[in-house]
Structures are given as structure tokens and as C-alpha cells.
Amino acid sequence: MSTSRRNVLAAGAGWASLAQAHGPGAMSADVAELTRRSAEGNAALMRGDVMRYNDLITLAPDFTLMSPFGGAPSHGSEYTPERIAAMGRFFRHGDLRQEVVRTWASPDMIVLGVIERALHVEVGGLPAQDWALRVTLVYRRHGSHWHLVHRHADPLAAGISLEHAAALGRGEHAPAALLQ
Q1: Phi, psi at residue 47, to the nearest 5°?
Q2: Best label site of 2, 69, 88, 167, fewest CB within 10 Å?
Q3: Which residues pair with 14 in a beta bridge?
């Protein structure tokens, strides 16, 4: 077995033992609270209520965002008051339903794998429409609080063809024939 595969397996076993060491359900209250805050915070953001989002979700100083629109990841230091206000103008009049796919927990880290279904939301000036995003949220404990350290979202909840994925992976737009 390769060293990198062995390291991955060992890391996975470590997570499992951490979660088990605290007994089944020991983290369930924190997971439930973060799941609720995530859903409520992102629903507020879809309405353009960035203040409520900030009340519910604390970004860690080393936060990273891998946006559903692609491009380079952004970092916590880039989230100035002006950029946060612009986020509130980017999303308008929507609602959100969050479907939990899977959660993982250790004493100091919680990961939520969810599908966010934004309903009738205006995004970046586009007409209102429904959006579905596959999202991974990573929270890290900081004292008695949980901070969001990573968010990765993509718009592939409905799935795409291998050819379309390959075109995107090459940095190309999908050929028109794939979009029909």
C-alpha cells in the first residue's frame, strides 16, 4: 500500500475513533445546531439579509470559499465590510431548503454535506429562478464557538454528462450539443 493511501486511511480511522470516543450522539447537539444555523443563515443570505447571515455564521480568519461559479478560492481576509454588503445585494428575494446528505463530527471539527435548494432567488441580477447546489461546509471549534473554515459549492446537483464534465475540466464551456 502506498504511503499516501496509508495516510488517508489512518486519518479516516482517526476521525472515526474521535467520534466514537465521545459516544454515539455525543456530538449530535452541536451537529444539529450547526445544521440549523447553516440552513437559517443561508436562507437569510438568499433574501439578501447578510446581517442575519453574519449573526448566524462566523467566518474563521483562515476561511476559504470555493464558489459555485468556479475560479480561484477566496479567503477570509478578503471579506471586507464592503464585500459583505455586496453579497447582500447579489442575492435577492429567495428562500432556501437544505437537505442534509451526511454529517461528520469530531470534538473540534464538524463537516456538513448538504444540498442547498434556493427557491425563486435573484442571483447577480438574473431573473428569479431555483438553484440547487451541492455544498460541503467545514466548521472548526474555537473555544466554545464554531467558525466556518471552508465552504465548497457546485451547481451539479442535477448531474452532467462525462463529456460536459471533461469540457469544464479542460476550462472550456460545454459544446452546444451537450447543452441540448
Answers
A1: -85, -10
A2: 2
A3: none
User: 170: helix, coil or strand?
Assistant: coil
Q: Are the C-beta atoms of 38 and 114 separated by less than 8 Å?
A: yes
Q: Would you kindly state where each structural domain of the chain is located, as residue ranges? A: 27-179
Over residues 3-43, the pLDDT tens digits come to 444 444 444 444 444 444 344 454 689 999 999 999 999 99
3-state secondary structure of 12: helix
CATH of domain 27-179: 3.10.450.50
Sequential DSSP letters for 27-51: THHHHHHHHHHHHHHHHHHHTT-HH
The dihedral of CA 84, 87, 88, 89: what is its sign?
positive
pTM above 0.90, yes or no: no
